TrEMBL record:
<dbReference type="InterPro" id="IPR035680">
    <property type="entry name" value="Clx_II_MBL"/>
</dbReference>
<feature type="domain" description="Metallo-beta-lactamase">
    <location>
        <begin position="13"/>
        <end position="177"/>
    </location>
</feature>
<keyword id="KW-0378">Hydrolase</keyword>
<protein>
    <recommendedName>
        <fullName>hydroxyacylglutathione hydrolase</fullName>
        <ecNumber>3.1.2.6</ecNumber>
    </recommendedName>
</protein>
<keyword id="KW-0479">Metal-binding</keyword>
<comment type="pathway">
    <text>Secondary metabolite metabolism; methylglyoxal degradation; (R)-lactate from methylglyoxal: step 2/2.</text>
</comment>
<keyword id="KW-0862">Zinc</keyword>
<dbReference type="InterPro" id="IPR001279">
    <property type="entry name" value="Metallo-B-lactamas"/>
</dbReference>
<dbReference type="InterPro" id="IPR036866">
    <property type="entry name" value="RibonucZ/Hydroxyglut_hydro"/>
</dbReference>
<dbReference type="GO" id="GO:0046872">
    <property type="term" value="F:metal ion binding"/>
</dbReference>
<dbReference type="GO" id="GO:0004416">
    <property type="term" value="F:hydroxyacylglutathione hydrolase activity"/>
</dbReference>
<dbReference type="Pfam" id="PF00753">
    <property type="entry name" value="Lactamase_B"/>
</dbReference>
<comment type="similarity">
    <text>Belongs to the metallo-beta-lactamase superfamily. Glyoxalase II family.</text>
</comment>
Amino acid sequence: MPMKILDVPCLEDNYSYIIFDESSKQAAVVDPVEPDKILQVVNQHGLHLNLVLTTHHHWDHAGGNDKIKELLPGIKVYGGSLDNVRGCTHQLLNGDTLSLPHTNINILSLHTPCHTRGHISYYVTATDQHDSAVFTGDTLFVAGCGKFFEGTAEQMYQSLCVTLGSLPKTTRVYCGHEVFKLLSL
Ligand SMILES: [Zn+2]
């Protein structure tokens, strides 16, 4: 029952990601800033979208949450407890865990502050697989990190080098901007 990840380019250079289980078709989405586009991909793959994982409160990440709640009433919207995330229904602290219903996919909330006070990175694993993925929003990019809007250099060091740096070396990194632009240069 492999875990699959689809990237959905949004806005100018944002990336939203759909995480799903191939057998049960249950899915989660990271930062669905353009809900119509997300639901098109969800429908194309015959998926059932259960929950939204918001990395941080900035509009280009959380700005689609209200709309996706309108389109999919009852959907759970997660976000960091220290960020005022638009449309959030479930606040997360560092170390909180959740699972995608009817799958073996588990999600760990990692508080990675500095870009925003309550920024969350999501570490996602499937119990029958060795590989894992982390969704780093605007904390970690391909060749750098996000701006220090609401935190200190010490916090960014902790977020990058301790919190994210402690994940298994095989973890795949999915960031909120840039990645495919860089690859296509
Ligand atoms: Zn941001």
